[in-house]
Specification:
By secondary structure, this protein is α/β, with parallel strands linked by helices. It has helices spanning 6-9, 14-17, 31-41, 62-70, 81-84, 98-108, 127-132, and strands at residues 24-25, 45-48, 58-61, 91-92, 112-116, 121-126. Helix 6 links the parallel strand 4 (91-92) and strand 5.
Length: 136
């Protein structure tokens, strides 16, 4: 998306600025596997796949790895992704205006949300995506 003035960015939508490539991992994989995948794909978070249609998606971030594995001195090869992931995910609709996404991020204390169209995950939106959409 082309950069826009702040006034216009507030009316842009999650679908306008989201990243369409979403990288997923299974919850039974180790945190070491997650670290390798994040580095390989150059992403800061991974979506944790559902175990079934009745289950919710999860998310693991670099912050989770640092605060829940590195800080307490755990071995990333001995910790499973499902042990440190956040679940359920906070999701936004592709049509949600960025001003409301920003409010949600602030109120929920999150940095990213999955963009869900009602049937499937179509992208991921981060506060960096919102920030980068502002033209100065």
């Amino acid at each position: 998306m082309a950069k826009k003035a702040l006034r216009e960015v507030r009316f842009a939508t999650a679908g306008d600025v989201m990243h369409k490539e979403v990288v997923c991992i299974e919850g039974k994989k180790t945190v070491a596997d997650a670290i390798r995948l994040m580095r390989d794909k150059q992403v800061s978070s991974l979506i944790v796949n559902r175990r079934g249609v009745e289950d919710a998606f999860g998310i693991i971030t670099r912050k989770d790895v640092v605060s829940k594995v590195v800080d307490p001195g755990k071995d990333p090869s001995a910790v499973k992704v499902f042990e440190i992931m956040s679940k359920p995910l906070i999701t936004v609709s592709p049509g949600l205006q960025l001003k409301y996404c920003a409010r949600l991020f602030n109120a929920a204390g999150i940095r990213r949300a999955v963009v869900f169209d009602g049937k499937q995950i179509v992208g991921i939106l981060s506060n960096t995506d919102i920030f980068n959409a502002i033209e100065v």
